[in-house]
Please model this.
Amino acid sequence: MDTPGVTIKDVARLANVSVATVSRALNGRENVADAVRDRVLAIANSLDYSPHHAARVLSSRRTHTVGVVLPDLPCEYYARLMCGIDTAARERGLQLLVSGHHRCPELQGMALRGMRGRVDGIVVMSPHAGLDLQAANLPPSLPVLLLDSQGESGGGVRSLRVDNHGGSRAMVHHLAERGRRRIAFIAGRTPNFDAAERLRGYCDGLAESLPGAEPWILAGDFDVASGHRAGCELLAAPELPDAVFAANDMMALGCLFAFNAARVRVPEDIALAGFDDSPLAQHMHPALTTLRIDIGGFGAHALRLLLDEAVGEDAPGAHSLQPELMVRESTAAAAGG
Model:
């Protein structure tokens, strides 16, 4: 809000320029001489003056704010994602309006509708049930970017995804190359787009690398507890696998806890791998082989794609980020492999 008693006219009078020039200088427009801009900014700062946000929106029809709608906010993955989005936003002088929908379609719709008229574009992640843009009743002119989501309604919407399918295929191929033949997979939460793609990649990779091998799939929920349960289930099986691929690093950690308690050695008895390359992966013992996703860079790239659309740059369709295989001690070759 403006400082009481100080208006844009006061800044213009003291700077000996027009109100329009003050407005252009404060909004970073290029058609203002550097000396004039410096004088206007110095006077505005001395008066503690800032343009009224609502008035600026009415005059420019832009909010200089980007909306971000995520499944969950108090989560390490989404915290890293938001750091990347925020860094890219600050580079462009933009603010963020952030909301979480807690995997609830109704709350997701409310969050999207609540951003109408308040943002210049929206980045939305909806990996659990897809996204119905028509139900959200967003203006057709509002740029929307789907982030790691199942699909969209309405067409013409850009998307940015991690190649979870390709990453999982690469991991199964790596384990097979290391001499592992009975490869179990701890799946992620359902319904979830990332989890489904990682499971599909595991199945396809198994068929390609080990023809005739039966998929060995255990339920998981992307957390340590579900990884531990899956590990205990494997330990109770008539025959142990010789490799376990978990759909994320947290489940791999839980599985490792179960193996350690049963004195099953990794990687001597069973190789272990994860997905995401979370900060703990390289500090586990043994260090975890995993698939690296630059989550912060992923978020920054998402915002830049959204802004490209907002200014009319042509980059339609889906864009993907390729995970990087990080080979560490937990998948050392099997004896004779």
